[in-house]
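Comment thread on ticket #2218

A.B. wrote:
> Attaching the input chain for the structure job we discussed in standup.
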Amino acid sequence: MRLDEYVDIERNERAERRRLAEEKSYGILDHLETFQDRFEEVVQGDSIYGGVSPSIFVGRSNYPRVSTGILSPVGVDDADEAATYETSAGWYDEGISIADVFRRRTSLLNTNKSATADVHDAWDGFVGTQREVAIADRPVTVEVGLDESPDLDFDVSGGDVGTPVGPRARAESAKLAENPHVPRQVKKTLEDDDWNAQGAMTYLYRRGFDVYDVNTILSAGALGRADQRKLVPTRWSITAVDDTVSKFLRGTIRDEQSVDEIEVYRNEFMGNAYWILLAPGTWEFELVEMKAPGSVWNPDLEEGVSLSSAREGYEGRTGYVEETAGAYYASRLGVLEHLSERGRQAKVLVLRHVSDEYWGPTGVWQVREGVRHAFEDEGARAETFAGAVRDVVEYLPVSLADLRRKSTMVAGLQTSLADFADTSSD
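C.D. wrote:
> Ran it. Output below, let me know if you need it in another format.
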């Protein structure tokens, strides 16, 4: 399929998108306004709170002394329903919206306690219960004793829309009200006291655990050598798992043949458009982000499009990506899963256009899923990499010159055009 036949995009809809975004944000405010009533129905003073918990959260402030919590959807006592509140790949399949993400996250009560990150192999007390929640393969009922009557300070404002987190309550104790079911593969990683965290993460991923599951287990300090197990702040663990799994996948394609033609894929999700260009050659990866005025990370309508980028060559990266942060690792994972499944390697350029429809932060999971699902159709084919870039730029909010200034791969077209030559002429 030719590239010009592949895409049919309606453009110049910014005003309408902004109007719809405003309507959605007002809906979130309405949701927050009714939340406190529901909360008070299940929490009375400092009484025991019983809830079905699908997940946990570990903060990063003051590390290694952290706030570590058990997350439970308020007023939900069905395990299947509670599972839908945990971030997962299934959210994409649901077609979840930004407003849906905010509703679910602001409905999660975070009963938390201060703890040291060094947990080793302890499974008692509040942290022990939290770890049991994390390694279970389905939500479990937890009884939490509150330290005091919670003060939610739940005045609703626009700021709440920009910070999609639920209420917090200090916990005194926690215990399981049922025996959790722990997969045998997870038990195996726990029983091997000398298995390092990276090896355990890769093992679980290869056994069918998605990165979301592995991330939760790692965050709870349930992976790694027994004497080195630590609570890992949730934000850090997400990147750590994406990075570790990506390195494993990159190893699976190092000696594979490259793709033999220019391939272009596209997907759009939650106001983010992803263009993925694969070109013949050894592994190389670059992410370029274009954040439109009025989007969550570039709110000033007068500032123009904000550009950021990061890349790696055949040997990968040695340092953390600052400019594109977690989006880099999430998008790279999606690409490497596709290439590993095909048994091919490629030079890869990912272009992420964050439109003004993306009005609230939902997390890097939507980047991961947006890229993963871009490969569901056959994509388009182009004669040259340079030609593919020129055609794609027609649908981007920046010029080719702007892209060339920010992208190493696009800037290098003049000096390395032979690497991307049309293979049909051979």
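A.B. wrote:
> Thanks. Noting for the ticket: The chain has three domains: 35-179, 183-253, 255-425.
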